[in-house]
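Form 7-S
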Amino acid sequence: MVVKIILLVVFFAVMIAVGLYSRKHATNVNDFVLGGRSVGPWLTAFAYGTSYFSAVVFVGYAGQFGWKYGMSTTWIGIGNAIIGCLLAWVVMGRRTRIMTQKLSAATMPDFFGKRYESNALRIVASAISFIFLIPYTASVYNGLSRLFGMAFDIPYSYCVIAMALLTGLYVILGGYMATAINDFVQGIIMIFGIIAVIVAVLNGQGGFTEAVKSLSEMESEISGQQGAFTSLLGPDPLNLLGVVILTSLGTWGLPQMVHKFYAIKNEKSIKTGTIVSLVFALIVSGGCYFLGGFGRLFSDGDIYNANGSVAYDAIIPSMLSTLPDILIGVVVVLVLSASMSTLSSLVLTSSSTLTLDFIKGNIVKKMSDKSQLLIMRIMIVFFIVISVVIALDPPTFIAQLMGISWGALAGAFLAPFLYGIYWKKVTKSAVWASFICGVGITVSNMYLKFIESPINAGAFAMIAGLIVVPVVSIITPKMKKEYVDEVFTCYDRKVETTGTKVLPEFDSENE
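Output:
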């Protein structure tokens, strides 16, 4: 217990120190929200990765899907690395950075408002962001606190409140730069922590080969056959694909993820960041899901509800409870690192969009830079309080909360943002259609259950948006050509060249 407490105290001290150090980088709105658009590749890549993977992945998703799909769950981590990181950086990184600077857009709703010349789009996008980031934040608190309860036997509510206070403190102090520096520190902890945990857990089962053998002897409820949990695609490939799509493609439309591209420094930083982000995701996400695939080997633990159903959120804590105290301390700091980075990104995104896109210019017509900073800090507290209240009495288990949040946000935003940085012919009506489609499918499915899994519903909402936007754009009135052409000049560069002088074909004096 002493070792675990020392590790925590050191971790908390570093986080607060970074917040205090970063105060000098948060003196105006641009610095507070975007780090002055001068954040280097390593900080940006780690900020992207650590915002991506949190206790939701480590405790909720790895536990639930590892139980359902066995070792094939590792495909989720691979999909996260290739689609969610590599392709996201290659397809969106450079163009997002250039166009958002051209439009002077600081948030995703701000981008929609300026790219499509619609204040109404900006306001609605801001409301969608704020509302649906709350359940995601609650799910992070939920997963983190379950692990704390296992390690320290501290009541769940105390854990939630303590994490909220610490996160709020360093984000309020240092803004984006504080979160980026802390994300880098936390990312290093996550890389070494997940490797150590995998080795320790598998050794506890007699090594990798013995663990695979034990898992292969278990019978799948879906296929009724042994060996399904160690097969290439697992017992349920179709639903596994739905999880891969939601958790990988979803990052392309999440405000807190795309926001990282707004702040990156230069062209070289994007190239370096792409590689760093890919490697980070392969280790952390791949490692989490790989570990979760062995969850059934620990079914003797306290992982069942009173009605006999599996408590998915208890699987990973049950696996880890068998580790030595020093490793449990490492795990707690690992998951704390993952979760704090995600929480800081979420609260900064939600508070900035509420202040800059909803309050400024609509409720308060004129706001000084100082007033905007003050209101953003107040909104950080407001957002944290709401998410803590939900986390103290969560309506469903972790993966479902995240599925609802990602489904609505990415379903609404992914298509109009992605098409918007590439295609001049996207219309306002198409953006509205995508908003309605993404939120409508996710929310209606919560009540009507026409798609059994919220995860698959979220994946369906994203794919639907990618189809709806071009179709609606073709049949609805186009935006002003002059304005759109001017926006897209950001990707062009004027180049002056010299050529060899050529004599005229005829001598004009002798014609």
